[in-house]
C-alpha cells in the first residue's frame, strides 16, 4: 500500500516559495548602509515548559519544565543580520497518571537555527527586517510505561520565513520581536516498535509540518559592550499525520550579551552607537 | 514609549492560551471513557483482526453495555480483560494496580516438550554459560555441539554468542535449542542469527498497521538474515522448538529456517508475530497490543498458528517420566543418519 504522494501543485508551491525566499535574501537591501558591521555573542540560561501530545506514544498529554542553555552569535551588518543559535533543553514530562517512575517521559532536545534577515524598513527607533531561517530540531525522548519503556527520536529541518521588528526606546534598551513560520521542511522519525516504517525522511509542506516560533526579547546595556538580556519564546511544532505529534514549548531565558563593533547594533555597542 | 505596551498583552496571551490553541480536551478517567478509549486504541492499532476472525465492533457491542459511570475498578478490569481476550493474542496484556494480565492461551494446555535438567543428561562434561546466563553451551554425546538461547531480552549481549561458537568451533554439527524462548528484541536476534548464516537470505516480510481501517498496512518490510561476526557456524544444524517459542524467538526460527543447512525439529511455535506497542489509559492503566504481522519467505502468516517444524516431534508423557528428551534424540539421530 503506497503512501499518498504530494500533489504536483504542492511541489510547485514549495518550489515557488523557496525561490521567493532565496531572491528576497539575495537581493540588495533598500536601505543604504549606515554603519560598519559588528557582532553579538550571547549565552542564556533557559527554563522551558513543554506541552506535548504524541498520539503514537500516548493518548494523554505530557507536560513539564526543564532547564536548558542557549548560545548565540549574530553578525549585524549595515543592511542584514545573520547568525547561528544553539539551544539545548532537558525536558522532564509527566501526565495526569504519572506516579513514581511510571508514565513519565524525559528527553533531550537540541535546536540549531541559522537566521538571515535584511532590513526592509527603518523609521526613527523602529526597524523592520525580513528574511528566512534554516532550523534543525532533534528531539529524543524515553517514555516509561508500566512496566515497559520506549524510545522516540524525531528530527526536523525547517526552512522558515522570518520577520523581526526591533525597537530602541532608549539609548541602552533594545526590544525585538521575531516570528518565523515554515515554508517547507524535512521530517525524520527514528524506528521504534510502533512505527517500523522509520527511519525515513519525509519532505513536508506546511499543511503537514506546522510550526512557528515567536519570541520577544529585551536587552539592556550594562557596560561597554555588555548587555543583560531576557526573552520569552513560544515554539510550536506539529506533524498531524501520520505521526500525530504536537509539541508546544514556552521558553524563558536570561543571559548576557557581548557586542563588538557596529553602530547599527543598538544600545551599548560602541560609543558612536550611543 | 507607547509601543512598549503592545508587547504585554501579546506575552500574556501567549503564556495563557497556547495549550488550548494546539490541543483539544484530554480524555477523562471515568470508566466509560476508559473502556471506549481502550476499544478505540485497539481498533486503530491491532494488526491481526483478520487472522483472528475477530469482529471488533461486535466485541464492543457485547461488552460495552457492562460498563457504566459507576462501574468499579475491579469490574472495569474484568470487562477490559474479557474484551482483550477476544483477540487471542499472546502479545496482548493489561497492567493495572490490581495486577497484570496477559493472554496465555497460546501455550496453555500444550506440552512443555522441554526440561533443561533432562537435556544435561545428553551433554558430555556439563554445560557452560555466558555471563548473563542467557546462553548455555556444551558438547552432546556423539560430538555435536549444543547451544541453548533462553531469550532475546535485554540489550548489548548479542556478542556473547561468540563465546559459544568459538568453544564449539571444532564440532561437526550443532544443535541450537530455543525451546522456551519467549522472545525479546530483534536487535539481539539479528546478530545472533547471523552467526549461523551462509549468505544473505530473505526470511520474512513484516506489515505494520498505518491507518484507521483494519486492512490499512504499510508496504511490507523485508527482513533478511545475513552473516554477522567473525566466527560463524554453517555446518549441519538442528534447531529445536516447542510451543513456548514466541515472538522474537519465532523470528529467530523463521530466520534460521531458510538456511539450507538447518533443520527444525520439535513442536510448532507459539504463533505471535506482532510487535506490540504500549498504550496508556487516563485512569493509569496501560496495555500492549501488536501493531504488525509477519509472513515468512515461504508465504506463511504464522500469527496465531505458529511455525511448524520440519520434523514434528512431541515428548510423550511416558518418555518425559523416564527422563528422555525425544526431541533432542531425534535431532541426534538426524545428525547421525
Any overview of this molecule?
The complex is a heterodimer of chains A (274) and B (337). Chain A has 1 helix and 12 strands, in the order H-E-E-E-E-E-E-E-E-E-E-E-E. By secondary structure, chain A is mostly beta strands. Chain A has a 10-stranded antiparallel beta barrel. Chain B has 337 residues and is an alpha/beta fold. Chain B has 11 helices and 14 strands. In chain B, the strands form 3 sheets. Chain B has a 7-stranded mixed sheet with strand order 3-4-5-6-9-10-14, sandwiched between helices. In chain B, strand 1 and strand 2 form a beta hairpin. In chain B, helix 2 runs parallel beside helix 5 and helix 8 packs parallel to helix 9. At the A-B interface, strand 4, strand 7, strand 11 and strand 12 of A face helix 1, helix 2 and strand 11 of B.
Quaternary structure state of the chains depicted: heterodimer
Structural class by sheet pairing and helices of chain A: mainly beta
- Spans of at least 5 consecutive residues with low confidence of chain A: 1-7, 27-35, 263-274
3D shape of chain A: globular
Q: Number of DSSP strands of chain A?
A: 12
* SS strand fraction of chain A: over 45%
- Main sheet characteristics of chain B: 7 strands, mixed
- How many helix segments of chain B? 11
Strand numbers in spatial order across the main sheet of chain A: 1-2-3-5-6-7-8-10-11-12
N- to C-terminal distance of chain A: 65 Å
Write down the Rg of chain B: 25 Å
Q: If you average the pLDDT of chain B, what whole number results?
A: 92
The largest β sheet of chain A comes out as:
10 strands, antiparallel, barrel
Distance between the termini of chain B: 97 Å
Silhouette of chain B: elongated
Q: Order of SSEs of chain B, N→C?
A: HHHHHEEHEEEHEHEEEHEEEEEHH
Largest interface: A-B, 41 and 42 residues
